[in-house]
Amino acid sequence: MGQFDYTVLKPSLPFIWTGLKFSVTLTLIAMSGGIVIGTLLALARLSSLKPLYTGAMLYVDLMRSIPLVMVILWFFLVIPLIIGKPVGAEYSAIITFTAFEAAYYSEIMRAGIQSVSKGQAMAGYALGMTYGQTMRLVVLPQAFRNMIPVLLTQTIILFQDTSLVYAIGAKDLLKAADIAGKNYNRPVEMYLFSAVIYFAICFTLSTFVKRLHKRIAVLR
Amino acid sequence: MAMIEIRGVCKWYGATQVLVDCSSSVDKGEVVVVCGPSGSGKSTLIKCVNGLELFEKGEIFVDGVSVGTAGTNLPKLRSHVGMVFQHFELFPHMTVVENLTIAQEKVLGRSRDAARDKGFSLLDRVGLKDFADKFPGQLSGGQQQRVAIARALAMDPICMLFDEPTSALDPEMIGEVLAVMQDLARDGMTMMVVTHEMGFAKNVAHRVIFMDEGRIVEDATKKDFFGTPRSERAQTFLSKILSH
User: Fold this and answer.
1) H helices within A66-135, ranges in order?
2) In this structure, is residue A119 part of a structural domain?
3) Complex ipTM value
4) Exposed, middle or buried: residue B101 (CB in 10 Å: 0-12, 13-18, 19+)?
5) Considering its fold, how many domains does chain A have in total?
6) CATH number, domain at A211?
7) A122·B89 Cβ contact <8 A
8) Which tens digit of pLDDT belongs to each residue from B47-86?
9) One digit per residue, pLDDT tens: chain A, 220 residues?
10) Is residue A67, in this structure, part of any structural domain at all?
11) Which residues of chain A neighbour B78 with C-beta distances below 8 Å?
12) B interface mutation test: which of A116, A127, A220 has the most B CBs within 10 A?
């Protein structure tokens, strides 16, 4: 192995920073959108209305059965056909991740909703609340609270998975490192550098989740 | 017309019939105790009254409104039928006073201030004013059940349903909950109470309904029920429960 040359890191920093910002933005948008859509999917799956139930189930099972990288490629090809004009790789990535992660978040929220006792919903109804009010005010806040550690763990996985957008050329952290590596002809250093950044962020977050888990377990 | 009118109600869980042709009524200001062995359908029956359980046959009217009919606005009906559960079912993510105000604000549309005033005066009534800002998890079972009663009362109910309100409580906490219920009865609240507390029935009830295997086998005034229950089943039940 040749000598590592770390002098290339400094000039590439602004470039890496832009990539990192996109990775984080993508993670945050896919997380928020995924949790909102996932919660709706979970409610549909727990509903007694057959079409809602079946539709949600098919969607979730489909997304969970296909490798993410294929979904990314397919959306990149299909979305322009649907809306009639090309979208950038970045927008395509945001839509894909939100739609894909919704399936995973929905399974978490479903478990969360089921972790709240039936009596809680009954108490809401008995006070005259509608289905929507009972869910919004009584069941979902508790489901969400019970599932925060699991939702965060899924978000860490999501952050790592965002590196797959290299497949469509969106400029995330990995892609930035890739380009910088080629620019300075120092690919090993740049890949290593990006791996360190991924590790630092994910390790910090998962340590935080572990602590949170203990605290929530104590609260309950 | 009676406040609660139950006519020929039948209910099935799959092939099992859990309510068989149940008929009874509760007049305004009347306290009716529903008792019977576990699995006799008494909790199911009381949950049918505010539509928390559906029934396949028969009719139930609450204040003249038919519960089982398709077009009935159940949320509206329930908003003025108070219900108290065996396991309290306070909302654990809200403080005690929030438990009392949430439905007043979101269902009845009361202002925050009006709801809080009402909440505090009811907490005072059940002796828990100092606990307003605590969370349910910080209260004892008896205290939680008193809060649950106050929560139901905050909606200004026209009648109250109690589903085994003391069954999940430690013996030393039963008294404080029964005292609140006795108070309510004395104030003329219409009450339907599923309970094993025969002392409460003797002191407070006007009538006693005895259920067994989904049927109402005895529906008598308190005096008749404790004096000379007609059915053999009720006699055995009473002799078992009163010997404790």
Assistant:
1) 68-83, 89-115, 118-126, 131-133
2) yes
3) 0.94
4) buried
5) 1
6) 1.10.3720.10
7) yes
8) 999 999 999 999 999 999 999 888 899 999 999 999 999 9
9) 567 777 878 888 888 999 999 999 999 999 999 999 999 999 999 998 999 999 999 999 999 999 999 999 999 998 888 888 888 888 999 999 999 999 999 999 999 999 999 999 999 999 999 999 999 999 999 999 999 999 999 999 999 999 999 889 889 999 999 998 888 888 888 899 999 999 999 999 999 999 988 877 655 5
10) yes
11) 125-128
12) A127
Tokens coding A27: 């993670």
Give the integer Cα–Cα distance in Å for A138 and A29: 26
A209 falls within a domain: yes
Mark out chain B residues that contact chain A at CB-CB < 8 A.
50, 52, 74-83, 85, 87, 89-93, 102-103, 106-108, 151-152, 155
The rounded distance, in Å, linking the Cα atoms of B223 and B241 is 17
Is A1 inside a domain boundary?
Answer: no
Residue A70, exposed/middle/buried by CB under 10 A (0-12, 13-18, 19+)? Answer: exposed
Give the structural domain span for A189. Answer: 6-219
The crossing angle, in degrees rounded to 10, of helices A89-115 and A140-161 is 140
| Strand pairing report for B57-62 and B31-35 | unpaired
